[in-house]
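User: Some background: our group keeps a shared notebook of sequences we're curious about, and every so often someone picks one and asks for a predicted structure to add to the entry. Today it's my turn. The entry only has the sequence so far, pasted here. Could you supply the structure so I can complete it?
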Amino acid sequence: MSIEERLNTVRERIARAAERAGRRVEEVTLVAVSKTRTVAEIEEAFRAGAQVLGENRVQEADEKRGAVSLPVRWHLVGHLQTNKVGKAVEFFELIHSVDRLHLAQEIDRRAGRMGKVVDVLIQVNTSGEGSKSGVAPDGVLDLVAAVSELRSVRVRGLMTIGALGAEGDRARPFFIQLREIRDRVDAAGIAGVSVEHLSMGMTGDFEAAIEEGATLVRVGTALFGERP
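Assistant: Of course. Here's the predicted structure to add to the notebook entry:
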């Protein structure tokens, strides 16, 4: 099956999930996770209609953007180390994985030097697994409030990853929890903060995520096929 055929299938699944939730399909953006994928695969996906690409590693994304000839919109969906912030701030449209104040402060410092404002999502560890990055649910409000004080960083929402092995409906509790945290942040009315985005759901659970309010779904395998 070609990437275009897989993309059409994913889009159909997104549309059906949105319909079940009484939502408009336009409310959901597909982030095509291109980790380890070739430039040719990325360009094929873009031409088929996947214009937002999600990368896990800054260096890999930077190498690809130098080779990709199309106007791809890059999102960073993986863990960001502070020593990679300078390069990340240069070209990522949205950083999904801010989970600590020190990281946000480094983004603010680097972005300020460039005269730009960087949009970020706060990553929340809804599963409580020690192997996952993310601020604990009870620390989200404090982190968002602290980040809101920075001049060159703008909070646009929240991100989470479901528990290991929890796919489909088994991942739903983590998505519900993130939506409820989003509602609490929204109700707090923190100046300069927008929580318009919920980045949640991957190949095995993106339909449940959409039904629970996801605006960004991060899909790799269902679009590109299994990795070699």
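Suggested note for the entry: Residues 3-223 form a domain with the TIM Barrel fold (CATH 3.20.20.10). The chain has one domain: 3-223.
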